[in-house]
Amino acid sequence: FQADIVADIAEPYNGAECKKCGGELELIRAIEFGHIFKYDHFYSEHHDAYFVDQDGEKKLMYMGAYGIGIGRAIATVVETHHDDKGIIW
Predict the structure, then answer these.
(1) pTM strictly above 0.90
(2) What is residue 74's three-state secondary structure?
(3) Three-state DSSP state, 86
(4) Membrane-spanning regions, if any (predicted)?
(5) DSSP label of 9
(6) Model pLDDT for residues 66-77, shown as the tens digit of each residue
């Protein structure tokens, strides 16, 4: 077996050093309320989606998507505004 991808992977912990800036990591709880996907040319290649730039050149579109669902929004509110009896209105 030959590994094609090799990386320095570790589980983060409070106080660990940030490999990008050298600062100290702080672990906090969070909720993913929405998300964004960068597709680049994946779908534009499959659907022949082009645009003409200011120089008149035909180029593939860069594509992406986002998502914020009503269920996710409600779950976020309930998760952050509840007690042992249920939702705090």
Answers:
(1) no
(2) helix
(3) strand
(4) none
(5) -
(6) 998 888 889 889
